[in-house]
Amino acid sequence: MNIGIVCYPTFGGSGVVATELAKILAHQGHTLHILSYARPARLEEHNTNIFYHEVSINSYPLFEYPPYALALASQMVKLIEFEHLDLLHVHYALPHATSAYLARQIMAERGLHVPIVTTLHGTDITLVGKDPSYKHVVEFSIDKSDGVTAVSEYLKRETYENFDIKQEIKVIPNFIDLERFKATEQTELKKELAPNGEKLIVHVSNFRKVKRVPVVIQIFAKTLEKGIAAKLVLAGDGPDRQVAEQQCRTLGICEHVHFMGKWERVEDILSIADLFLIPSGSESFGLAALEAMSCSVPVISSDIGGLPEVNIHGVTGYACPLDDVICMADYAVQILTTPSLHATLAKNARKRAELFNQVHVVRQYEDFYEQVQSRSIKQS
User: One fold for both 2-175+358-379 and 187-356?
Assistant: First the structure.
């Protein structure tokens, strides 16, 4: 198939999933055209079946904010027309699904119909979509898509509960490259981060408020108070970076905390982790948790959103109520001081991650593409 994929280029889950999906589909012989306003972070390798198209936006004095959605729709029209796309798969409802609908209507005037698949990832529904100024547009754009998927049962429920959606939503979860994300020897890195054999507690995110990075710091501080020799490794960057740094200074624990910034090969850090923390305030799935679990790392998470569908309480780690620092710190101490428990959780975490094998999940997307395309041909 000749497929267009539209995504954000950032390190967030939607951009990562969209890019990895494109790479796997390309390796399987499909032709992929990726549209975004910048080259996606995970699109680092060359593949002759992947073509990147940057959505350029011209600034005019009339516009306070350049109309990205219109520029995107225009680029979609060009791709559909000149690259002869079989299907357009947009990740994130706003503005991608809206732009796709506009592009499809333009092409319909020319006698060409290209089906649109929209994948819902999380904040497009749980945060942005709930804004009254966007709600009706989100509903319309989802319902006008030819096929809709969500990355978790939780997100599917949230969509139906908060929007008047008539479209059937199919759950296709996020996926993992089991070969890339697995426990490996990283002796030099581990020695650098934990020179005296300390336990390594890791958190990876974009440091937005919803990720609760200050809570991560609090959990770690409580763990130190309980006598655990440990280091905290924070990979990523974002708005709460300075807040977290100041918090470390206030608590006097800076010597025990490593701020790694944006780290391309996050699997290297996860490979040497003893514990992964993800106390997020909202997660539609929890891709970072899955990546840690695939590296045989036990996870402590909040018990909200789609996280309980990934991190199974008492099996792959533990889940606590939102912002319950004491609960999370107690479980952290328990895991780090009980070798047999750690070993069991680590083994279960990897086994659980294997259920999200990218080969199996991407096949679900291929099947869904074929179903949508078939329906579209019958309706046209």
Answer: yes
Q: What stretches of 226-357 show up as alpha helix (H) in DSSP?
A: 241-251, 266-271, 287-294, 307-310, 325-337, 339-353
Q: Note if the bond before 115 is cis, omega within 30 degrees.
A: no
Distance from C-alpha of 43 to C-alpha of 227, rounded to nearest angstrom: 42
In this structure, which CATH number among 3.40.50.2000, 3.40.50.11480, 3.40.50.1400, 3.30.70.270 belongs to the domain 2-175+358-379? Answer: 3.40.50.2000
> What's the rounded Cα separation, in Å, for the pair 205 and 317?
19
- List, for residues 85-110, the tens digit of each pLDDT value: 999 999 988 899 999 999 999 999 99
End-to-end CA distance of the chain: 19
Q: Which amino acid is present at 325?
A: V
pLDDT interval class at 214 (50, 70, 90): very high
Measure the CA–CA gap between 28 and 290, rounded to whole angstroms. 24
Question: What distance in Å separates the CA atoms of residue 328 and residue 168, rounded to the nearest whole number?
Answer: 37
Yes or no: say if 17 and 151 are a contact pair by the CB < 8 Å rule.
yes
Q: Which residues pair with 350 in a beta bridge?
A: none
Backbone angles phi and psi of 273, in degrees to 5:
-80, 145
Distances (CA, A) of 108 to 77, 104, 114, 142: 11, 6, 8, 18
Architecture of domain 187-356: 3-Layer(aba) Sandwich (3.40)
Report whether 115 contacts 147 (CB < 8 A). yes
Provide the 10 A C-beta neighbour count for residue 11: 21
Half-sphere exposure of 367 (CA within 13 A, CB side): 9
Q: Where are the domains of the chain?
A: 2-175+358-379, 187-356
pLDDT tens for 236-272 read 999 999 999 999 999 999 999 999 998 888 999 999 9
- Name the helix (H) or strand (E) containing 98: helix 98-108
Cα angle value 120/126/127 (rounded, 5°):
115
Task: Name the region of 207 (left: φ>0; alpha: ψ -120 to 50; beta: rest).
Answer: left
Question: What single string gives the DSSP state of each residue in 186-235?
Answer: -HHHHHHH-TT--EEEEEES---GGG-HHHHHHHHHHHHHTT--EEEEEE
